[in-house]
Design a protein that fits this description.
Layout (H helix, E strand, L loop, with lengths): L5 H17 L7 E5 L2 E5 L9 E3 L7 H10 L5 E5 L8 H7 L3 E12 L13 E5 L3 H14 L4 H16 L6 E8 L2 E11 L2 E9 L8 H15 L4 E6 L4 H7 L2 E11 L6
Parallel strand pairs: 3-4, 9-10
Antiparallel strand pairs: 1-2, 2-3, 4-11, 5-10, 5-11, 6-7, 7-8, 8-9
Helix pairs in contact: 4-5
């Protein structure tokens, strides 16, 4: 039996998921999907709405790409993954005025090795996003739960997802959890190359420490298992690693997001 390169699976699924969001036919979204980098820009003055990922470039090109955002006063992010190049990319970004915004740990497992069969959370009703109304609620929970502002990027997220999430062909799914009839938890899944990628697992602050993160993750497992998937990957914050290890995930690699924000935004 061929061994699984979980580290490669994690990175590949992540890159494809980012392309799902930013290689879209949306007004005011421009993107360049080149062999050595992916660049996207919008008219939104927020780092998450502009950036670079999947970069395997020469050291000389890095400052030029950074300058293309700075001359427009566009806040932006730069995703660093294990295959990013040059090897000292982090140092070059810092020297050019970028700061570390967040970091995560790539984790993976096989559904067949799941350590728990069901969540112990109580009174959480989980529904699959299947209407525009539910999608709107999902976006609110996913953004707020992850600490992002609604006003700046809510419409962008809805515009990026709505043409794709309701297709009959199963490529992406989103789940929304209700507690006392209020939407409080989210998760998102991208199916690609035989791998299940879990993203946007979030719980609103008032509903935390009730096991809802585990429940939203297991909701993805249930759907994936029904359609024949076994490999599941995700990127975890430091805070959530113990939860995922309790399910059966193992750590494989690391990711960082660097960003630049013009001074007048502070």
């Amino acid at each position: 039996m061929k061994s699984i390169d979980f580290g490669l699976e994690i990175e590949t699924n992540m890159i494809q998921t980012w392309k799902l969001w930013f290689a879209s036919d949306i007004d005011h979204l421009k993107y360049e999907d080149r062999p050595n980098y992916f660049k996207f820009t919008t008219n939104i003055k927020y780092p998450l709405a502009n950036g670079i990922f999947n970069a395997k470039v020469t050291p000389e090109l890095v400052p030029k790409l950074i300058k293309s955002f700075k001359v427009e006063n566009l806040p932006f992010i730069w995703l660093i993954t294990p295959s990013s190049r040059p090897v000292d990319l982090k140092n070059i970004l810092v020297l050019n005025g970028l700061n570390l915004i967040s970091q995560s740990t790539g984790m993976a497992m096989q559904i067949s090795k799941l350590k728990i069969s069901e969540s112990t959370s109580e009174n959480l009703e989980i529904v699959k996003v299947d209407t525009l109304e539910v999608l709107n609620e999902w976006v609110k929970v996913a953004l707020i739960g992850n600490g992002y502002p609604l006003g700046l990027i809510q419409d962008f997220f809805i515009d990026a997802l709505s043409p794709k999430i309701f297709k009959k062909k199963l490529e992406i799914s989103a789940f929304l959890g209700y507690y006392n009839n209020e939407p409080v938890a989210s998760s998102f899944v991208y199916y690609s190359g035989g791998v299940v990628g879990i993203y946007w697992v979030a719980t609103l602050e008032r509903a935390r420490k009730k096991g809802f993160g585990t429940a939203m993750t297991l909701a993805v497992f249930q759907e994936a298992k029904k359609i024949g998937y076994n490999i599941v990957i995700l990127q975890s914050s430091e805070m959530a690693i113990n939860m995922y290890e309790g399910i059966g995930f193992q750590k494989y690699n690391n990711f960082q997001i660097f960003g630049w924000i013009p001074e007048f935004f502070y």
